[in-house]
Write a structure and sequence with these properties.
The structure is a single chain. The chain is built from 16 helices and three strands. With about 325 residues, it is mainly alpha-helical. The protein folds into two domains: about 100 residues; about 170 residues, hpI Integrase, Chain A, CATH 1.10.443.
Length: about 325
């Protein structure tokens, strides 16, 4: 029987961050998926999680775990697929490390993803964006920092990990641009003038802090993803008082990224530029925004030559004749 713990450790600490260039957030997500899996396996097999062996993680146990996520934990199909993606990635990693388990690995890899409903991406309208960006108080230190973070999140479409991981040396205010590192790739993005002004105002009062990250909390430590989510929630509540449509939106840091994508798409009408802006490695990932943009459909309608409409006019029948026809039909 093969201990699973050394392989999991190598996968999370070496393969994902070093060979795949996965972000810390991705590694954390994968680790949580395995935590759930081993807790389920340990309870099912009546072992301690550290005693679970590779041979015991067969396709039947993995399938039972996925069913447990949807039934006992009430997880959505999307969440179930995320956990399965982590498991499949790990078993592909094992193919070359454990050739003796190749048949077991192939059966696990054959477990299919579940079909999910394709929903339109949520994003903010222009008035909602402006109200949110105006929410931070520019007369306070925290307000100036928050204003810069929100402007940068919207204008650059950064992932949360990219936003909180942005370092001082990656900001070039003289050329109004930033260098972004995300998912093992680097891209350079120009800044809107308003965003550059907001960022310049924050850097002027940031002070000599040891942390290399641009955005720090009140203790001078790098801003965390939960810290930014809290900041966004606080300002969303303030903005909701002035913009009645905001409370109807499920606002999250990733919605700001979607909003940026829609702004770029509506300005350029070029999905390739949106892909470059967001740092997508696959153009297919970016196509979700074309389904959410109504202007794309309007342009298609305007380009189509519709079929002719047959002309004619309707004359309602005389009420008396209609009554008589109805009576005669019954008799």
């Amino acid at each position: 029987m093969t201990p699973i713990a050394p392989h999991i450790e190598a996968f999370l600490r070496e393969h994902l961050p070093q060979h795949r260039g996965a972000s810390a957030h991705t590694c954390d997500s994968y680790a949580y998926s395995f935590q759930l899996l081993f807790e389920f396996a340990a309870k099912r097999l009546k072992f301690a999680p550290s005693m679970v062996k590779l041979e015991q993680l067969d396709a039947s146990l993995i399938s039972a775990f996925l069913e447990h996520l949807e039934t006992s934990r009430q997880n959505s199909a999307e969440t179930r697929n995320i956990r399965l993606a982590a498991i499949r990635s790990f078993f592909r990693f094992l193919e070359h490390r454990q050739p003796a388990a190749l048949e077991q690995i192939r059966r696990v890899l054959a477990i299919p993803f579940k079909r999910t409903n394709s929903r339109l991406v949520p994003y903010l309208m222009q008035n909602e964006v402006q109200t949110l960006l105006d929410a931070p108080d520019p007369t306070t230190r925290e307000g100036i920092r928050d204003r810069a973070m929100l402007h940068l999140a919207v204008s650059a479409g950064l992932r949360v990990s990219e936003l909180i991981g942005l370092r001082m040396e990656s900001v070039a205010l003289d050329s109004m641009s930033i260098r972004v590192h995300g998912k093992g790739r680097e891209r350079s993005l120009p800044l809107w003038k308003t965003t550059a002004a907001a960022l310049r105002a924050w850097l002027a009062i940031r002070g000599p802090i040891a942390a290399p990250e641009v955005f720090v909390n009140a203790r001078g430590e790098p801003m965390s993803r939960w810290g930014f989510a809290y900041v966004l929630h606080q300002h969303a509540q303030i903005a909701s008082k002035k913009c009645p449509s905001l409370p109807t939106k499920k606002l999250s840091p990733h919605v700001l990224r979607h909003t940026s994508a829609m702004i770029v798409l509506q300005a350029t009408h070029d999905i390739r530029k949106v892909s470059l802006w967001l740092g997508h490695s696959n153009l297919a990932t970016t196509e979700i925004y074309t389904r959410a943009d109504p202007t794309e459909k309007l342009e298609a309608i305007e380009a189509v030559v519709p079929p002719h409409l047959r002309k004619g006019s309707f004359r309602p029948p005389d009420k008396l004749i209609a009554l008589l026809k109805a009576k005669s039909a019954k008799s």
